Amino acid sequence: MSSVTLKKVSKRFTNSDVDAVSQVDLEIENKEFLVILGPSGSGKSSLLRLIAGLEEASNGEVYFGNDLMNDISPRERDISMVFQNFALFPNMTVYENIAFPIRASGKDSTNLDSEVKKIASMLQIESLLDRKPGELSGGEQQRVSLGRAIIKKPKVFLMDEPLSNLDASLRSELRTEIKKLHEELGITFIYVTHDQTEAMSMADRIALIKDGKLLQVDKPDVLYNNPNHSWIGSFLGMPAMNLVNSSDLGDSISTKKGTTVVGIRPENITVSSGNSKLTGSVISTEYLGDSQILNVKIANSVVKVKVPNDSKFSVGTDVNLDFSDGDLRFFSDDGKTVR
Amino acid sequence: MSENKNKKNNSRYIRYLLLVSAALWVLWPISIMVEEGFRVDIGPLFSGRGASFVGEFFQGQGGIKFSPIEYQKALRIEAYPRLLVNSVIIAVSSVLVAILAGLPAGFTLAMYKFRGKAFITYALLAMRTISPFAVLLPFFLIYGRLGLFDTYQGMAFVYLIINLPIITMMMRGFFKDIPKEIFEAAFMSGASDSYILRKVALPLALPGLAAAAVFAFVGTWNEFFYALFLTGAVTKTVSRGVWSGFSESIESFKILEFDELNAGGTLAIIPAVILSLAVQRYLARGITLGAAE
Amino acid sequence: MRVPYLFLVPALVIIFLALIGPVFQSFLLSLSEFSLVNPSQTPVGFQNYISLLSDSVFWRAIQVTLLLVFGSVFLEFIVGIFLALLITSSGQRARTWFSSIFVIPIAIAPIVTGVLWSPNSFFDDLNTLLYYGLSLGTYIDTSKPFTYYSIIVLSDAWIWAPLFMLVTVAVIRSIPKEQIEAAEVMGASSFTKFQKITFPAIIASPAIVVTLLLRTADAFRMFEVPYSWNFWLGQDSQLGAPVDTVSVLMWKMFSSTLYDFPIAQITAMAILLLAVTLTTCALVLRRSSSLLD
Ligand SMILES: Nc1ncnc2c1ncn2[C@@H]1O[C@H](COP(=O)(O)OP(=O)(O)O)[C@@H](O)[C@H]1O
Ligand SMILES: [Mg+2]
Fold first, then answer.
1. Assembly ipTM
2. Cα nearest neighbour of A14 on chain C
3. What pTM was computed for the model?
4. What does each C-alpha distance from A84 to A88, A210, B176, B178 come to in angstroms?
5. Domain C55-292, architecture per CATH
């Protein structure tokens, strides 16, 4: 059990002239479930591997609690990690895989057998203990790898896209279980993913990373509703936040000083017959099942509007759009939120 | 449409024709050796005379004399089984030592970045590529002083020059082939390097180790140069014996008898060819030490 | 991560004892006046190198070596690409069979290759066929320089073209399918595809460059086949014979009682050869994309 603190941590790989992780300051509280979210190649794995000690920081410091970790090898950091590709030992049975950390570290193993069985039953893999990883499905393999990770009761539990190799139904099932695991174990979880649904549903806080830089660390709802950068608005949400040049909006909308881009989420716009702040023509519609998206052209911009799935709009008709001013977000030239 | 098909078929025939010719080109010299070992001479089919031409020399012989006598001779000569045994003893012991040294080194090269890694890799490349003469004379002098000349230990040690780079670099490659997350999971479990090597890396790379060992064995089996200079009556190997005859002492080259040479050569290549075909998937890795990947 | 340096110790000990130590001693020997007959060493600086570089026999050996090196490597490179194209465009079963056949020569001891391609084996039957069988009244005279140089080059290519084939096949496999398909959609002929896609990919591949470099380094120490040709041509006791590569020349100086064991000159030659090896290995290390990962 331990907090994790990063101070100005950077990583530049040899043969590269950009930082994969750049000047990251991050404080992860004890027992927190922190999700590192970002697009592919943004440096999520690198950041996690820096915390694990699998990569050496080019600059900056990593602390567990108050202990500086920079020169401590991953062996001694008291962490566990779960990988996207499961990384089980293919030559060992499920039992041996789960028991490995205890056997390998030569720790006291008097209770090993009951420990392994307890963990196996917790993860519902008791019946698989004698099988080899090659004989298991992806979901089962990832359960085994979770078991191997928790048996040594680490201070910090690291996961790098653990669900990305699984199909959708398994993913949501395991999501719930990992969340439950976090509550039962009471240790710090750091979870990397590129999947915003995963991040939103599991995280206490989300650390959003792009091009190696940490953009915002906040609770999911804060991140969603009050992004401090227009890019975050356009990254989160399906569909993402509309970002419209303020010049396209005319005078009907009052913006804060310094604003060049105005953001609003598609679900916060309604099509109205009465009040209207903006008018545009429908250029296409996208049917999403539970709802429908209208693409509405306003001046030089296209605005997405989320409407009920049973409403009928034909391409080419003009629609009046309404929204509350409180849902508008204002961004300056460099993408930062204008407050 | 059918014209197109014809064209396709034609090019297929041409391709197979070329492949078959290439295969004949490869196999021809070998089959002639095997056949000459049987003292077969095709000359009589045409004129009753065989012929071979070396400059002005003309050597004629007559008659088809198919006979396994040269093979029997080669096998019956007291020295021949001895040569086989020598080659096996030297190659196996040298490969074993190379495994003991090369396995942990290959593991470290595969897993870690460290200062001196380039030096070791470079040294292994140089060791593989070096002209034997660049080390031969010191070996000659030192072996003379230490009494290692013409001994099994001495030969096993010399052949580490061939075997250490092969084992170390091939194993490095096989360890690299294992997803690195598997090792990272093991590291974070708190396992020591030797535990990981024994319980994780080696079991997963065991087929690779077998291939590397076979490859090194064949390399040693086939080696001629060091054998020519450093073996004598006690440790003479097969490839050395194939050339200099089976029964004489090291000093005198006996007049080469071609039938015998061919029979001996055939016998010498059989194990090497069989073993190499078994590991042919890894030939390029073995020859280039994994540099060409 | 803490590097287990202990794991490197056995390999390092062997590298020092079998490679660096002997090479260093060879270098010292090359700087002194020394022979087995008169074993007191007197330092003479670079005298041995100077006298070597003014020796026409040495230069002739260099010329022969360069001729054979570049002839062989070029030929096996071309033939290897050709074989790879044939192999990759045929069916799975043909591919397996033919590549197994093609790699056989790699498994054969080089000294046996010398025997295989000797006038008395290979050319015995061929000449009989030409002279008597087809009554052409002509035969391949292996005593002609052009003929025996060609044969040595051919036999080297016979062994090593399959290596280029293996590496080239891997390169061809790694060309993105979409590229080839796009070319096909645009109606490119097989030749255009080769010229515009396959060949540039082969040439640009580090694997091919590294293989070329390593083969060049290996060819520079070419010994067994030219050595055997000294016997086929009856020139084994004559310094500076037409098939004396640098290695063969060193062997002759070393083994012939006529020359009073000029060890210093031999080591000087070996050190010059070593410089070629070390340079090539350095290039290999630079060009190889993965060796130092
Ligand atoms: N071992 C490495 N060597 C060089 N560059 C790397 C290495 N690992 C990652 N990178 C680079 O660093 C950047 C971030 O990669 P990564 O942390 O894997 O991103 P993510 O996990 O968010 O997809 C990428 O541009 C990637 O190419
Ligand atoms: Mg990643």
1. 0.93
2. C293
3. 0.91
4. 11, 20, 18, 15
5. Orthogonal Bundle (1.10)
